[in-house]
Design a protein that fits this description.
Elements lengths: L9 E5 L7 E7 L2 E4 L16 E4 L5 E3 L5
Length: 67
């Protein structure tokens, strides 16, 4: 999966309770892989509607819009 604007393959989502807490991930063939250092109980549930942000440019949108 790549950013529709710049082609970057790294993304992040924000914690619903703390907008400064970020969870970085990559998604190969729509399989989301978070940073291995994250504790699994902190990782948010990935749904098609979750707001997703590109790690390189200003793009953000729903997870389902990634190609």
């Amino acid at each position: 999966m790549k950013c529709p604007t710049c082609g970057c393959e790294k993304f992040y989502v924000k914690d619903a309770d703390d907008e400064y807490e970020l969870y970085e991930f990559t998604a190969l063939n729509r399989k989301v892989e978070f940073d291995a250092t994250l504790e699994t109980h902190n990782i948010p549930e990935m749904t098609n509607d979750i707001e997703t942000y590109c790690d390189l440019c200003a793009w953000h949108g729903k997870f389902e819009t990634l190609k």
